[in-house]
Amino acid sequence: MQPLILPVLLASFWTVCTGSADWCYQSQFTCEHQCNAPAMWDHASSNCAGSVQSPINIVTRKTLKDERLTHFEFKNYKQIITSRVKNNGHSVQVEIPHLSSISGGGLPNTYKAVQFHLHWGNDGGPGSEHTIDGEQYPMELHIVHMKHHYTDLKTALSDPEGVAVLGFFYEMSNSENQKYDPLISSLQKITATNTNTSLLSTSLAQLIPSETNLTSYYRYKGSLTTPPCTEAVIWTVFENPIPLSMNQLKAFSELRFADKKQMVDNFRPIQRLNGRQVFWSGSAMTLASSVLLVSAITMALGMAQPN
Ligand SMILES: *[C@@H]1O[C@H](CO)[C@@H](O)[C@H](O)[C@H]1NC(C)=O
Ligand SMILES: *[C@@H]1O[C@H](CO)[C@@H](O)[C@H](O)[C@H]1NC(C)=O
Ligand SMILES: [Zn+2]
User: Fold this and answer.
1) Architecture of domain 18-284
2) Any idea what DSSP says for residue 203?
3) Which residues line the pocket of ligand 1, CB cutoff 6 A?
4) pTM of this structure
5) Any idea where the domains of the chain sit in the sequence?
6) Which residues lie below 8 Å from residue 277, measured CB to CB, with a gap of 6+?
7) For ligand 2, is residue 210 a contact (CB within 6 Å)?
8) Residues 209 and 242: beta-carbon distance below 8 Å
């Protein structure tokens, strides 16, 4: 009889773990709360076991430089977002009125901003979803866009190129980033899951590096990094990180999951590349320095003209 006990126990554990479409991060999984952790997300949505999943580790040595990855045009990114910031039980999320958009950057279309949210670690520890040569940054911002003619994300996700997500890393800096004050001060009002508060004077432009620092980025095709893990995302991961102080990074760990545990380590582990090529826009030469370069060449050409 003895040897039977383990399989029976395992079988009942399996039933509990797979019985629900409820998904969670590894940091939420305990014996008392057996939710579907990332390795079991395919029980919440079969897409999560697909072959072009996100996030990935970007091996810079294996990226391919692509001249088509030109600079982005950001439209209405400076507009103040009059919206609410919400603790949705997995992250902090802000729905954006569909007025800001991106084009260029090698994208096949214009994409309009739908929402943004973040993924972070524990009190400023490693917490980004994408990693660069194995390095995990403390946090990652995702600005989710959909092809301009769609009106809702659900429809856009049925198009294999329907969604474009811009990913930005954070790095610890010694000084506070005051542009983040409105967002970070709102966090203390939404520590509980399913609460929200109004977001004070913040624009998308304010949350990301200046345009001249956004010319160096990686591009690949992947998926949403949470269930339903739909494989409909053109990913852009920017090289230049956003600076935040340690206290600002730690503020995110004050949020709570639905089970009231600290909302920390809300990132999905990296997924297999399965033969995908990651493209790179080229060196971090800024717009300003390329303008200088062009004028230098023009001058040199001018000087070489025979009189
Ligand atoms: C914010 O919370 C209120 C009260 O629970 C709710 O009625 C409202 O729908 C929420 N708004 C958003 C955008 O989640
Ligand atoms: C832009 O990049 C430079 C060089 O990496 C850095 O010193 C500067 O702080 C960055 N500016 C912004 C706004 O990110
Ligand atoms: Zn995300």
Assistant:
1) Roll (3.10)
2) B
3) 84, 86, 196
4) 0.87
5) 18-284
6) 64, 220
7) yes
8) yes
